[in-house]
UniProtKB/TrEMBL annotation:
Superkingdom: Bacteria
Domain N-acetyltransferase span(s) in chain numbering: 17-174
InterPro entries: Acyl_CoA_acyltransferase, GNAT_dom, N-acetyltransferase
Protein name: GNAT family N-acetyltransferase
Length: 187
């Protein structure tokens, strides 16, 4: 079985970005993003009510990492590594089956600049080469055309469309599942 056991926390660098561990100093930026309806339009999760909700969320992310259950990075520009502009990571892992689900979000000021594409490539490379995943999947809201295009650009294949399989905010919602096998790409 695979393990998510890294010490220290794995920091990834790309041409423009640093992907690093969440810390309490990121709480305000994360709170603002997770309360922003534009950012969260296709992320069907409860919105935080207070900054304390975000402190607890960050503590849980870091605890889950220490327990080998998830691996989530803050996205920051190299020029301003302490300023969080987004996040990406393996939020749900199925380590016995060498599979993990990837998710991401980005502040609207940085949309359409290739930031998530760059972070996604680094995360995929890490997932296949360092974690030794066999497959990576993504679960998106079917209305999220930008996310679908991003996944397809990176070689993901649509694996499923689930009708009304998710209950959020008093409604049953659909999900689209995309997958990428290690053998689908040349690393």
């Amino acid at each position: 079985m695979l393990e998510l056991s890294f010490s220290p926390f794995p920091v990834l660098e790309t041409e423009r970005l640093i992907l690093r561990e969440h810390n309490i100093d990121d709480a305000t930026a994360l709170f603002d993003m997770r309360k922003d309806e534009e950012v969260m339009r296709y992320i069907d999760r409860e919105r935080p009510k207070t900054i304390e909700d975000i402190y607890a969320f960050i503590r849980k992310l870091n605890q889950d990492f220490k327990q080998g259950q998830s691996l989530a990075w803050i996205i920051a520009l190299k020029d301003t590594p302490q300023q969080m502009i987004g996040s990406i990571g393996y939020w749900r892992t199925d380590l016995p089956n060498h599979r993990a689900e990837i998710g991401y979000m980005l502040h609207p000021d940085y949309w359409r600049k290739g930031i998530i594409s760059e972070a996604l490539k680094a995360s995929i490379d890490f997932g296949f080469n360092e974690i030794n995943l066999h497959s990576i999947n993504a679960n998106i809201n079917p209305g999220n055309d930008a996310s679908r295009a991003l996944l397809l650009k990176h070689g993901f294949v649509k694996e499923a469309y689930f009708r009304e399989n998710y209950y959020f905010n008093g409604k049953f919602l659909d999900s689209e599942i995309y997958g990428l096998l290690k053998s689908d790409i040349s690393l």
